[in-house]
């Protein structure tokens, strides 16, 4: 485990910008603490990324109006300032690739992020055309991670992606799905050692991945991205109006979002979880799950027992 900056570097940065921060105590607290966000290594390369990223399904599928895009621009700006990296998109997500590309280009921080997108079609040439379109929309000549979305024609697309990785067009390649029923196939591909990343669903109530998929990824040196960490909001609906359990403080958990995310990222096989949001406050809350203590096995068991009583 590693963090974004050392405490000494953090103190040094406060010395430079401390006066400005004192104008807003809440901002000061956020900006200084974020320097300690947990990072994990991508096994195939050793490159480190923060354990919480950003999903774009629905939230980034918006039109060109300022009212729709300004909140997203603020999310991306804040994410970069906090040291956030991974942003996940897909052609399936409507305008998300285009919006991410245009906003990060306008903010002049496009190359500061780790862009992960997908190919979601059938056929070799169709896949090539779609991926080239994603490069154009996201403003990239090289994509950090290209994934085969929901395993659609995965054997065909992986052949292309292996060639593109050799050519330097993509840095990493991977596969994705979002249902428990796909876990056995994902595990088979993980064990083939032909991919760098695998993305799948996992949450405190949806724990099928704990049976063997998480261990398979760890044992075969494949990075893990977690989707559906909040079960499309169902977890928040389940705890609506309820107080955090007292033991949550033992793991520096200050919100339900952090309760759910810390359960996930406490699994060392998990490289990054990608909750989606279009709200700056929620972004800060989500990324801050990478701060402080993580639950151990005893803590994870208590979290499960508590949530199963809801």
TrEMBL record:
<dbReference type="Pfam" id="PF00248">
    <property type="entry name" value="Aldo_ket_red"/>
</dbReference>
<feature type="domain" description="NADP-dependent oxidoreductase">
    <location>
        <begin position="52"/>
        <end position="297"/>
    </location>
</feature>
<dbReference type="InterPro" id="IPR036812">
    <property type="entry name" value="NAD(P)_OxRdtase_dom_sf"/>
</dbReference>
<protein>
    <submittedName>
        <fullName>Aldo/keto reductase</fullName>
    </submittedName>
</protein>
<dbReference type="InterPro" id="IPR023210">
    <property type="entry name" value="NADP_OxRdtase_dom"/>
</dbReference>
